[in-house]
């Protein structure tokens, strides 16, 4: 049994809470099929996210907006078949949680048909009463704050969030409210390092970052970015691990090692 999993050998919310409490960084990556999921699981990635980034990195679209519930379930089923140890998190796609009733029905589909263990919703479209109702129904929730790609047109592009005082203050307050409403995890995307660290220290639930610096409880990157096969320009916060590795397995292991040791991310992959 690994130090990061429960007695069943699986990573659970309880093991992630213990990792936060003991300061052991949580290593997460995205996957979209069983073959890559097996590689990630063998490298002891703790949380595998079936991200709606599938729309961009697999389907070649410009945004995540067109991804459907049926597509998320299809990819989730494939990834589940590749996992033995990691926790399976699945994104709720754009407009699948426009109302609390839709959120409940679609989160239930991701769990029953897609075998998800936790669902991720982008805060902004998500409302507090949704987090409450999902919590009451026993559905684990991760709330995604900061840069929320489903709102890219509203945000005016993919930009760092929380650099100005009002937005930073709102993010601090939202994080508190979400924890109180029953969110089990937070994910911060493209948030200045100091703000992300402050938010992480202010909540008792695990906080995962992407472009949020080293002061959070864990890191996530898009698998195709670390393998340098994502279409389009490389994002500033992602690191190419394949260039220094002999295989995909080794690249993923190197990422996990660097997250666990704190060697990733350095300031080069974060924002002030
Ligand atoms: O969809 C996705 O891959 C994500 C990550 C950027 C965290 O939400």
Architecture overview:
- By secondary structure, the chain is α/β, with parallel strands linked by helices.
- The protein has a single domain, classed as TIM Barrel.
- Helices cover 40% and strands 14% of the residues.
- It has eleven helices and eight strands.
- It has helices spanning 13-22, 34-42, 54-57, 69-82, 100-112, 128-136, 152-155, 165-181, 193-202, 223-226, 248-261; strands at 26-30, 47-50, 87-91, 118-122, 141-146, 185-189, 207-210, 218-221.
- Strands 1-2-3-4-5-6-7-8 form an eight-stranded parallel beta barrel, surrounded by eight helices.
- α5 links the parallel β3 (87-91) and β4.
- The longest helix has 17 residues, at 165-181.
- The chain is globular and about 45 Å long.
- It binds 3-methyl-2-oxobutanoic acid (KIV).
- 3-methyl-2-oxobutanoic acid binds at residues 30, 49, 51-53, 91, 187, 189, 210, 220, 222.
Which helices and strands, and how do they pair?
Elements lengths: L12 H10 L3 E5 L3 H9 L4 E4 L3 H4 L11 H14 L4 E5 L8 H13 L5 E5 L5 H9 L4 E6 L5 H4 L9 H17 L3 E5 L3 H10 L4 E4 L7 E4 L1 H4 L21 H14 L11
Parallel strand pairs: 1-2, 1-8, 2-3, 3-4, 4-5, 5-6, 6-7, 7-8
């Amino acid at each position: 049994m690994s130090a990061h999993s429960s007695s069943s050998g699986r990573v659970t919310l309880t093991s992630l809470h213990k990792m936060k409490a003991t300061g052991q960084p949580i290593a997460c990556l995205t996957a979209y099929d069983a073959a890559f999921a097996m590689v990630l699981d063998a490298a002891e990635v703790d949380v595998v996210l079936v991200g709606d980034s599938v729309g961009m990195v697999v389907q070649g679209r410009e945004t995540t907006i067109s991804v459907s519930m049926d597509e998320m379930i299809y990819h989730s089923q494939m990834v589940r078949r590749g996992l033995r140890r990691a926790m399976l998190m699945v994104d709720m796609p754009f407009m699948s949680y426009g109302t609390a009733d839709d959120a409940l029905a679609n989160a239930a589909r991701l769990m029953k048909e897609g075998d998800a263990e936790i669902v991720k919703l982008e805060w902004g479209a998500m409302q507090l009463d949704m987090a409450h109702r999902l919590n009451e129904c026993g559905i684990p929730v991760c709330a995604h704050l900061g840069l929320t790609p489903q709102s890219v047109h509203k945000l005016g592009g993919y930009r760092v969030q929380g650099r100005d005082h009002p937005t930073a203050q709102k993010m601090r307050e939202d994080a508190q409210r979400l924890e109180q409403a029953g969110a089990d995890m937070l994910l911060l995307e493209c948030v200045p390092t100091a703000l992300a660290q402050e938010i992480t220290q202010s909540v008792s639930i695990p906080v995962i970052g992407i472009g949020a610096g080293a002061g959070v409880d864990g890191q996530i990157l898009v698998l195709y970015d670390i393998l340098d096969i994502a279409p389009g320009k490389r994002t500033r916060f992602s690191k190419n691990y394949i260039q220094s590795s002999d295989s995909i397995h080794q690249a993923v292991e190197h990422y996990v090692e660097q997250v666990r040791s704190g060697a990733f991310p350095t300031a080069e992959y974060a924002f002030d």
